[in-house]
């Protein structure tokens, strides 16, 4: 039986392995499935798959550009799901999408389609805690782990609720605002990760703006792992091949494992 996303990540974390979750926008290039395979071969613990969307509220300019390129090339949720179903990777895949795409099918049908295509998790950054109930129920009913986001501005009570209700891991965002690259990571990110680790036993993963192996290793000392997104998409948009992206992910994997 395939383990849940959370069981997979817990097992690796509990063995002392810092978690690495690289991101790719589905459809951004013709060979984007090869990027997923390269990430898996490079030591990713899970892989975040961004569904292209015309108005990604929390994505910075790089991922917005990647989404625009994918949409211009004709990417659709149905086509993305068909490609994912053919991938066959054992590394857990986590969909990152927005509420509008889910509502077009309805939460239950959307979650069922993700499950049927082999995904094990779902992130919906524009679905606030107060409104996530129906999606939470639909995801659980289809065996998907719905990952909730925690912001530096959240109160201790809200962080505790997020830690209780999130599945898979808790996604701790390093800053208020959108994703990005080549920007300093605020000290509040470290404090947020440490506070969450005191409130939940679920893996706590930091994301937004983590661009270099050194940044990833430094932040992983305070959390259980990191998401790397914009830095990878910038390389892809600038012409990097899947193998080159795999090499960069491998360099982050090495830095995490060495703690430097």
UniProtKB/TrEMBL annotation:
EC number(s) from the headed UniProt entry: 4.2.1.20
Residues annotated as the enzyme's active site: 48, 59
Name the record gives this protein: Tryptophan synthase alpha chain
Gene3D superfamilies: Aldolase class I
SUPFAM superfamilies, per the entry: Ribulose-phoshate binding barrel
Lineage: Bacteria, Bacillati, Actinomycetota, Actinomycetes, Streptosporangiales
Coiled coil: none
The protein's annotated pathway: Amino-acid biosynthesis; L-tryptophan biosynthesis; L-tryptophan from chorismate: step 5/5
Annotated organism of origin: Actinocorallia aurantiaca
Annotated family: Belongs to the TrpA family.
Biological role: The alpha subunit is responsible for the aldol cleavage of indoleglycerol phosphate to indole and glyceraldehyde 3-phosphate.
Quaternary data: Tetramer of two alpha and two beta chains.
Substrates-to-products reaction catalysed: (1S,2R)-1-C-(indol-3-yl)glycerol 3-phosphate + L-serine = D-glyceraldehyde 3-phosphate + L-tryptophan + H2O
Alphabetical list of PANTHER family matching this protein: TRYPTOPHAN SYNTHASE ALPHA CHAIN, CHLOROPLASTIC, TRYPTOPHAN SYNTHASE, ALPHA CHAIN
HAMAP family assigned to the protein according to its UniProt record, in alphabetical order: Trp_synth_alpha
Keyword annotations of the record: Amino-acid biosynthesis, Aromatic amino acid biosynthesis, Lyase, Tryptophan biosynthesis
